[in-house]
């Protein structure tokens, strides 16, 4: 009898599993149940249909039930919810959501890919007709219908994660006045505050109203919400709202079947994607996996992992032997021409884990400065102290962020050090990069600290020294006069870098000197000059005045 493989959930992880299972075993009997009306659609594309970047709705369907049957001989049953698993008899109970009938389906191998569920806060009027979430095609259709029928002029987006930010761009492109409210003190919670501040600043400059450290207290209005009150008391009139405050793993089927749930709250699986029952696999947003850097369990729900895990589970359920090595949490978001990306550990994650780390910042042009339209790429690396192993990277800029973050992700996957980054042989031609690519420069900046060629402090460390009250610090600002006119650290001594050799006697040789410039390069050069001319206690403020202002107002 052919092997019977049943899959629950028919989108990223489920459809990948089905297609791979078929490639592994042409004779298997494969059935995929999906409780929604569509299979294999592009969740990640939904904001771009709302924005108008994607013009045809059909493009969002990677596969249809018919096409999937023809190409892969997989039977997809939509509007069918799997309601329970009988592990002893190896069968699932399925409710047909159209006629309400429940039927049983036998399996040899079961693959769960039930995804995640958006978190909806229990606030009155959350069910109002102009308050939406965005997880699937039906949600998107409802939003589009409302936009077309009512032509709203304003929107409040609740939650500043990557989906919230993509929606900021989408609705701004449609001409709505956009407000975003986020409970934390930053948008993009997976990044560090100093790097996320680039996004906040960028959005404010473009007219988006950003409320940080401010959650939603009340939605006012009955059938339609007209005003939203934030915890701070701010009242924001709005024509519509979208809730995107995160998701939680959809584990109810697995939990009710007695499968092991991991410490993260998601379903435990081994590297073959097997659950605690070897006949049941689980993939995607409902599962936890191993973090490649920390080797600890992590729950990071992303399409990139779901599709790889689906492939592994599909192969193994059909008799193959594949493993999923783990996650780095590599992710990227674009919002109104600024792109932010991260991979591996952020500084706050490294700190929470008790890692012995240091951080290094660099700022380089996205491509050769002399070739038109270069823009700044800001990079933050988190590095293991002592051996220089790269632990994480964050990149923000207008161009070339995607390529750099992927190089860092590959470096993390391979366990490279920051000295290895200095030596990478990366492609260069003026429209694409510089002879020293921003990744190489980031590696050099971090390696200089590791080799103690320069002593460095972060703006955060300086602020902590000042807060502790006994700083005794002397600040040296080596930027130009025009830059200083736009803001500076109080009580600093201003000597532009090019004047430093002739004016260093103006500095106190006894007191510790913190040198800063815009982003850390000129101040690094200044520390090299001073330390070779007899100044004993000179430190470069890595990240410079930009990161200083991102960590607090001067
Ligand atoms: P899903 O793709 O969500 O599929 C789960 C399916 O299971 C659902 O269709 C659900 O209806 C079905 N289901 C649940 N329970 C049952 C049941 N009992 N019976 C039958 N069917 C059931 N990730 C990125 O990496 N990059 C991005 O840019 C990105 N952008 C995103 C934008 C949006 C708007 C959204 C919503 C998500 C985005 N993601 C992105 C996340 C990504 O879509 C998910 O990580 C990925 O889809 C997870 O795949 P999955 O198979 O685990 O779950």
Q: Any overview of this molecule?
A:
By secondary structure, this protein is an alpha/beta fold. Helices cover 29% and strands 24% of the residues. The chain has 17 helices and 30 strands. A five-stranded parallel sheet has the order 3-2-1-7-18. It has a five-stranded parallel sheet with strand order 9-16-10-11-12. The protein has a five-stranded antiparallel sheet with strand order 21-22-25-24-23, sandwiched between helices. A hairpin with a 4-residue loop joins strand 14 (227-230) and strand 15. The longest helix has 15 residues, at 303-317. The chain is globular. The protein starts with a strand and ends with a helix. The model has no long low-confidence stretch (mean pLDDT 96). The site of flavin-adenine dinucleotide has 32 residues, from helix 1, strand 2, helix 2, strand 4 and helix 8.
Shape: globular
Q: Tell how many strands the DSSP assignment holds.
A: 30
Ligand catalogue = flavin-adenine dinucleotide
Unreliable runs? none
Mean pLDDT: 96
Intertermini distance: 73 Å
Looking across the biggest beta sheet, what order are the strands in? 3-2-1-7-18
Q: Largest beta sheet, briefly?
A: 5 strands, parallel
């Amino acid at each position: 009898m052919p092997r019977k493989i049943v899959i629950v959930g028919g989108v990223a992880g489920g459809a990948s599993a089905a297609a791979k299972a078929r490639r592994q075993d042409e004779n298997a009997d494969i059935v995929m149940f999906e409780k929604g009306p569509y299979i294999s659609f592009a969740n990640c594309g939904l904001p771009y249909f709302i924005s108008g970047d994607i013009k045809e709705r059909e493009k969002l369907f990677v596969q249809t039930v018919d096409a999937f049957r023809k190409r892969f001989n997989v039977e997809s049953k939509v509007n069918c919810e799997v309601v329970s698993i009988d592990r002893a008899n190896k069968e699932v109970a399925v409710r047909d959501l159209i006629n309400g009938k429940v039927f049983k389906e036998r399996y040899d191998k079961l693959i769960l890919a039930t995804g995640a569920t958006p978190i909806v806060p229990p606030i009155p009027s959350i069910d109002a007709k102009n308050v939406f979430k965005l997880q699937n095609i039906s949600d998107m259709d409802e939003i589009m219908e409302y936009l077309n029928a009512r032509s709203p002029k304003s929107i409040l987006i609740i939650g500043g994660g990557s989906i919230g930010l993509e929606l900021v761009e989408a609705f701004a492109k449609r001409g709505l006045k956009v407000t975003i409210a986020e409970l934390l003190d930053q948008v993009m919670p997976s990044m560090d505050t100093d790097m996320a501040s680039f996004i906040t600043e960028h959005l404010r400059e473009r007219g988006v109203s950003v409320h940080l450290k401010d959650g939603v207290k009340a939605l006012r209005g009955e059938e339609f919400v007209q005003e939203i009150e934030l915890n701070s008391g701010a009242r924001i009139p709005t024509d519509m709202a979208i809730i995107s405050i995160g998701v939680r793993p959809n584990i109810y089927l697995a939990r009710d079947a007695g499968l092991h749930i991991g410490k993260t709250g998601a379903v435990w699986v081994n590297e073959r994607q097997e659950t605690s029952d070897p006949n049941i696999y689980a993939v995607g947003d409902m599962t936890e996996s191993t973090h490649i850097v920390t080797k600890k369990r992590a729950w990071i729900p992303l399409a990139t992992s779901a599709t790889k895990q689906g492939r592994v589970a599909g192969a193994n359920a059909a008799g193959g032997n594949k493993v999923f090595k783990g996650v780095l949490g590599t992710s990227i978001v674009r919002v109104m021409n600024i792109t932010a990306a991260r991979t591996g550990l952020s500084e706050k994650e490294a700190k929470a884990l008790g890692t012995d780390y240091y951080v290094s910042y660099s700022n380089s042009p996205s491509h050769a400065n002399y070739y038109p339209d270069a823009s700044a790429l800001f990079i933050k690396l988190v590095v293991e102290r002592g051996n220089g192993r790269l632990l994480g990277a964050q990149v923000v800029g207008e161009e070339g962020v995607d390529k750099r973050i992927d190089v860092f992700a590959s470096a993390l996957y391979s366990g490279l050090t920051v000295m290895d980054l200095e030596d990478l042989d990366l492609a260069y031609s003026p429209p694409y990069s510089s002879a020293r690519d921003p990744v190489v420069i980031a590696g050099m900046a971090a390696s200089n600290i590791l080799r103690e060629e320069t002593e460095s402090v972060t703006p955060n460390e300086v602020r902590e020294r000042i807060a502790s009250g006994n700083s005794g610090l002397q600040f040296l600002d080596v930027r130009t006069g025009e830059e200083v006119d736009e803001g500076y650290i109080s009580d600093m001594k201003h000597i532009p870098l090019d004047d430093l050799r002739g004016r260093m006697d103006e500095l106190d040789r006894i007191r510790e000197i913190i040198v800063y410039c815009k982003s850390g390069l000129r101040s690094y050069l200044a520390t090299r000059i001073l330390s070779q001319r007899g100044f004993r206690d000179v430190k470069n403020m890595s990240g410079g005045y930009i990161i200083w202002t991102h960590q607090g107002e001067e």
